[in-house]
Amino acid sequence: MSETSPRPHDAQALLSEEHQGSPTVQPAQPTHTRKLYLESYGCQMNFSDSEIVASIMDEAGYATTRNEEEADLILLNTCAIRDNAEQRVHKRLTQFKRAKRSRPDLVVGVLGCMAERLRESLLEQQKLVDLVVGPDAYRDLPNLVEQVHGGQKAVNVLLSREETYAEISPVRLDANGVTAFISIMRGCDNMCSFCVVPFTRGRERSRDPQSIVREAQQLFEQGYREVTLLGQNVDSYKWNIDNKGQIKNPDEPVVRFAELLELVAGVHPDLRVRFSTSHPKDMTDDVLHAMARHENICKYIHLPVQSGNSDVLKRMNRGYTREWYLDRIAAIRRIMPDCAISTDIIAGFCGETEAEHGDTLSLMREVRYDMAYMFKYSERPRTLAERKFEDDVSEEDKGRRLREIIDLQGGHSQERAEGMVGRTYRVLIEGVSKKSDEELFGRNTQNSIVVFPKGAHKAGEYVNVHVTERVAVTLRGTVVENG
Ligand code: 5AD
Ligand code: SF4
Prior knowledge:
CATH superfamily of the largest domain: tm_1862 like domain
Bound molecules: 5'-deoxyadenosine, iron/sulfur cluster
């Protein structure tokens, strides 16, 4: 898995020159005459996109509000990954349709992954919304909203091969002032057979590394202490290199994910770096070594397995086998023995037998994940699985298998948390604990939540916490010295 790439510090030099040459220019404060209420569903990428939407609409004179009652414009950033996500959005849209009866000027729009698929039914059949805008068309939002004000319905669901919103400074929504997302790429080229994302978000494209590093620098200067780099498959991040592995411009550095991680980690030792999502077929040892070299790259990897059986993985078109996956886990454990690992698992994929399901349970026992997101298979329109396979595992079997998976994971999560009791961790404080004003909470590098008495500390600081107990998977402890 060796790859040709320039030494990271070459790219670093180039990027820092670039940064010095271009001071941040704050746009003139526009006058905000209208209010936008924005609700997001689904993955972190959608939440990150909503911050881009808020920025575009801010320029167009819309201030965001948390109160839907006072909004002139309501936008739902939707998710299509499973049927139940779509059902929730439908319910919300029906509520907003009712609200429109008493507020005829209210404009309601659907953004994100449901846009392309449901534009006709949402706009025409059900007349639920005025506006439908896909994930690559957000720059067009102000025009489209104007079109609606002019009495028309408005749609733009075109997908792009280039759009990365690279230079747009996101407006941080629901910000705690400590942790933020940075989107590093868009779309996905993998075509896992169960997944609708390649259809809703289009082709994979990477954002230029200079704008990513600049965004991290700006966040650090604003007091943020942790960034999460987001992409559907971060391991295939690449800049200045085409799909055949050829360098595009010899005068510019090639930046792959391992180098990008090091560049962002180089912004400041007190800026933590996280990332999501890794793909087992693409995660190289280079990335693991980069993580090991930098204290501030968090020792936590989300590595979705989906199934523990190689035949199922083949039907899922995941591009790896059980053995390959376990080899990647072994590499993580070898290079970073303290690294936490989480995963995604799907129960009851097309044709899954009891024995194949048993292989998922046995893989879980072998890996002992710190955490997992677990789902029942939900057939999605247009996907390879919908076209090629029958959704033939009964609802009852799907439910039971999912419960078995959840129960097993529950034990593993507690076991992992138990292993952290008695140890001391550097914790980045994120805020006041939900349960008590006298306590703060933060995370250790492994992403476990740690709660401790407030003392004189505050959000954004690092403290060393000695963990004395766990309550379920939450760690509790006391500050032993300033970090
Ligand atoms: N059914 C169930 N789960 C799915 N996921 C993606 N598509 C589906 C589907 N059709 C899960 C996968 C993926 C996570 C984001 O959502 O586990 O990793
Ligand atoms: Fe979907 Fe697979 Fe792409 Fe993830 S890697 S977004 S599961 S197609």
